[in-house]
Amino acid sequence: MSTFSPVIPISDSTSTTSSRPRVGGACVRQAKLQDAVHIFELVNSLSGDGTLLRRSYSEICENVRDFVIAESEAGVFLGCGALHLYGPHLAEVRSIVVKPEAKGQGAGGKLLRALLEEAEAQGVVSVCLFTRIADFFFHFGFRIADRTTLPDKIYKDCQTCPRLYACDEVAMVRGPLPKIAVLGPTKFPQQELVKLQTSVVPLQTKA
Q1: What does pTM read for this prediction?
Q2: Which residue in 49, 51, 81, 164 is a FRET match for 41, CA 20 to 30 A apart?
Q3: What was the pLDDT predicted at 167?
Q4: Per residue in 135-146, is it b (16+ CB within 10 Å) or e — as a string?
Q5: In Å, how far are 48, 63, 112 from 107, measured between CA atoms?
């Protein structure tokens, strides 16, 4: 899922969303539309071997507000990460990666910490991710989980992934396992699912 190395643990109380602190010369900020091309190029540079799912440029633009980016003090793009919200019960850290030349600057840890802070600000109970480097995420309070306990993620991405039956990534969760799901088929009993409200607009008839 990503290629960065372990850095400062989540217990560091420095904010990453407002004061934009620097660690090893890297800082993190909310992505802007102008950053989409850099995100697109970096994410898709790692999609060939399945490290990251391929994303179209239009998809990046549509969801650019989900992203944060890391950059040098000179404003050079170093990496990115995104937080996808399924609902108050679950969010997913996605597309988190830094350039090879940015390793050791603290960019990876800063990106992840900013996304976790966003999840907390949104009142999300659980945060999940899929990765090949589980050891890194242990430092941030994640633990390995059975992927079948994350039906929202399975339905959104895994069913259409070319590596569905040859996946070598580990599912991880920070916080309690979600008790509800809002997308597609689920293993949970129907009464535990979120009830989506629907309404029927009556047809207007002429007198």
Answers
A1: 0.73
A2: 164
A3: 78
A4: ebbeebebeebe
A5: 23, 21, 9
